[in-house]
Amino acid sequence: MKFILFGTSACHLCEQAEAILHDVLIRFPNIQLELIDIALQTQWQEQYSIRIPVLFHSQSQHELGWPFNEDDVISLIQELSND
User: Fold this and answer.
1) Cβ atoms of 54 and 66 closer than 8 Å
2) Residue in 29, 28, 49, 31 with CA at minimum distance from that of residue 39
3) What residues pair up with 63 in beta bridges, in sequence order?
4) C-alpha gyration radius of the chain
5) Which residues contact 62 (CB under 8 A, 6 or more apart)?
6) What is the mean pLDDT of the chain?
7) What are the residue boundaries of the structural domains of the chain, listed by start?
8) Is pLDDT above 80 for 83?
9) What's the whole-model pTM score?
10) C-alpha distances in angstroms, 66 versus 35, 54, 74, 82?
């Protein structure tokens, strides 16, 4: 299962999201996480600039917007695993 975390540099909320996801990844080693800096593409800036960090599941197109915690991420993983 693969997720993308949309964020940008010097974003303290993005750093908090990364820390949460790091803890979750320890429990779910089959999860892949790609970090994408929205500053790299205009389309990402337009879509996510006021919403980052956003956790995105590419296969289902499901987004989990900030604020989220470890339990929210685990619930999302379990929900997507059951589909």
Assistant:
1) yes
2) 49
3) 56
4) 12
5) 56, 76, 80
6) 95
7) 2-82
8) no
9) 0.93
10) 15, 6, 15, 23
The span from the CA of 8 to the CA of 78, in Å, is 27
Angle formed at CA 83 by CA 80 and CA 2, multiple of 5 degrees: 35
Phi/psi of residue 20, each to 5°?
A: -60, -45
Q: Could you give phi then psi for residue 8, rounded to 5 degrees? A: -160, 170
Contact call for residues 38 and 49 (beta carbons, < 8 A): yes
Q: What is the pLDDT of residue 82?
A: 86
The hierarchical CATH code for the domain 2-82 is 3.40.30.10
**52 pLDDT above the threshold of 90:** yes
pLDDT at 58 over 80: yes
Q: For residues 32-47, give the mean pLDDT.
A: 95
